[in-house]
């Protein structure tokens, strides 16, 4: 159990919390009364709308903008949260970007951008925010990965590589932080009905759904439920795991 405060009085930071899976995660924690920090980069209005929905549940909410490719901006975000009393007990590294296309067409700039947001951002946020968790001997770090980080995907080599790195990062950091009472796990969803699927037309989506034993895409709330479970104090013996809610697509 937390030596800091009861679970419902803890604070969760959700990166990329202005839409999709991140917004669903923020709202799930808000329904339980946790303090919620919604991180975003450019989507100010979307972040505010998620914040309003969270506050409707009585949660204390803060929105904050930062470029997760920049250590300086992440450290500035930490300072803002500390000044407002919103330092996270639970860190959800959800922010990410996708990339579709043949590896032969990937540019150096593509590589740098996808790796920076998906992998470097996870590294930087974990490093910056785990310091307080180590001091208090309690914390939860939950990384949102992807099924493609486990199995790989044709025409998504760059994205698959980044998420595979997130999975390895998760397993290694879990071992490092376990003596400090901190768990590190990853949620690796299959196909989820979010804006990230906007590059596929209706026929493509139908074809993908037909390959999934469940016969459909997940909805963001289903992913949020798993993230919430991993954040619970009583989930403290689940550590270093890559859990993939994918409707039976990958077993």
UniProtKB/TrEMBL annotation:
GO terms for biological process: monocarboxylic acid metabolic process. InterPro entries: KR_dom, NAD(P)-bd_dom_sf, Sc_DH/Rdtase_CS, SDR, SDR_fam. The keyword Oxidoreductase applies. Transmembrane segments: none annotated. It comes from the Bacteria. Keywords: Oxidoreductase. Residues 10-190 form the Ketoreductase domain. SUPFAM superfamilies: NAD(P)-binding Rossmann-fold domains. It holds the Pfam family adh_short. PROSITE patterns: ADH_SHORT (PS00061). One of its GO terms (molecular function) is oxidoreductase activity. Belongs to the short-chain dehydrogenases/reductases (SDR) family. This is SDR family oxidoreductase. It comes from Paenibacillus lutrae.
């Amino acid at each position: 159990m937390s030596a800091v405060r009861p679970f419902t009085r803890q604070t969760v930071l959700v990166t990329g919390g202005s839409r999709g899976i991140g917004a669903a995660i923020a709202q799930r924690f808000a329904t339980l009364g946790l303090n919620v920090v919604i991180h975003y980069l450019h989507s100010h209005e979307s972040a505010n709308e998620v914040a309003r929905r969270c506050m409707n549940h009585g949660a204390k909410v803060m929105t904050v903008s930062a470029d997760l490719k920049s250590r300086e901006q992440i450290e500035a975000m930490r300072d803002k949260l500390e000044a407002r009393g919103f330092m996270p007990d639970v860190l959800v590294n959800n922010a990410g970007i996708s990339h579709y296309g043949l590896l032969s067409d990937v540019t150096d700039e593509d590589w740098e951008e996808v790796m920076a947001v998906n992998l470097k951002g996870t590294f930087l946020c974990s490093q910056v925010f785990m310091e307080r968790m180590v001091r208090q001997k309690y914390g939860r770090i939950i990384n949102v990965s992807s099924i493609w980080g486990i199995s790989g995907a044709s025409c998504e080599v760059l994205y698959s590589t980044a998420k595979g790195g997130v999975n390895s990062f998760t397993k290694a950091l879990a071992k490092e932080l376990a003596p400090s009472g901190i768990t590190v796990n990853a949620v690796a969803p299959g196909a989820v009905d979010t804006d990230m699927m906007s590059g596929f037309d209706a026929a493509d989506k139908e074809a993908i759904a037909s390959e999934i034993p469940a016969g459909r895409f997940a909805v963001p709330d289903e992913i949020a439920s798993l993230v919430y479970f991993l954040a619970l104090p009583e989930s403290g013996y689940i550590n270093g795991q890559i859990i993939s809610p994918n409707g039976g697509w990958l077993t």
